[in-house]
Amino acid sequence: MTESGNPKDNAEAERINNTLKNELFKNMVFTEIGQVKEALRKAVMFYNHERPHLSLEMRTPAEAAAETGRLKRQWISYRERAIDAMMANAEEGVDKAKATG
Which among 82, 78, 79, 51 has a CA at the least distance from the CA of 64? Predict the structure, then answer.
């Protein structure tokens, strides 16, 4: 899934491939590409609309996408933590400027 072949470069795609191979397509045998396409279509619909995800507080991705605001996560997003810190620092700077201005 990546130019370098390193699975860590695209962890999301690797996770999806793992779910397809080891959960949704396990023990399935395909003899033509049309069967694969139909199985993939059904798997995506199931994954997005019927399969609850622990990381989404047992909601489906479709349910989670319909909500506004942030979901309570079961993991730490260091990227989001850094963005939140930058936003807080920026707001603090604006508040200080108003107080001295």
Answer: 51
